[in-house]
Amino acid sequence: MKQPVIQTERLSKNYAADGVQTHVLSNIDLALYDGDFTVIMGPSGSGKSTLLYCLSGMDTPTAGDVRFRGSSIAGLRERDMAEVRAQHFGFVFQQAHLVSNLTLFENVAVPGYLKAGRTSAETRAVAQALIERMGLAPDARHLPSQTSGGQQQRCAVARSVVNDPALVFADEPTGALNRANTLEVLALLVELNERGQTICMVTHDVFCAVRANRILYLEDGAIVGELELPTWPSDADAALVKAREAQVNAWLSSLSW
């Protein structure tokens, strides 16, 4: 039986500006389970990224609770929450956000030095293995400015898992990539998931979403739909992609996507 990594209870998030309250998330109850590849979809402004940031401790909910492995993290001090993120969560964003004066290898390795109980030599070995797995070995000593956007995003994926996180949060990780690089990044995420990595990804692209085994649909700050899918097969072909896209598009249409 799958165990929850993250659970929420009546999670809400409001913003106040000029005396006006904006309700972004409203009383969300959800669980993200070990080994799942969960995608969050919804129209622009529905609260997708805000939900991701509240789940990962990058933002603080206005009300409700977020529990990691059964322990509440919603009310942690920023210093303590930063430690939880460093030890247990990985992040991939639409932009790679690499450190410009560090090589690709160094960008992957540096967060690894924060991992508790691991030596520097072990971190370097893990980083090197990830660089090779991501197909970046020929460019490992290059600065980000000397590489392509696709290479930079593959580096960001490697960096997100250097600490063997319980969960990787990905916010539109292919949003700035062309289709060829999108396919490469999706293949890496699928491979990581096949190896047991839990992933939660926000995307607006059905082509990306069909790789998940679970899709949540967010509208006006509330989850209004959920779709379970078979685990994405490693030998998926164009026909399967088209069939899965048709299934997901039909489901989304039923939700007024």
Automatic annotation (TrEMBL):
Domain of life: Bacteria
Keywords for the protein's UniProt record, in alphabetical order: ATP-binding, Nucleotide-binding, Transport
Keyword ATP-binding: yes
Matching InterPro entries: AAA+_ATPase, ABC_transporter-like_ATP-bd, ABC_transpr_LolD-like, MacB-like_ATP-bd, P-loop_NTPase
Keyword Ribosomal protein on entry: no
SUPFAM superfamilies linked to this entry: P-loop containing nucleoside triphosphate hydrolases
Start and end residues of each ABC transporter domain: 6-245
GO molecular function, one term: ATP binding
Protein name per the record: ABC transporter ATP-binding protein
Organism, scientific name: Gordonibacter faecis
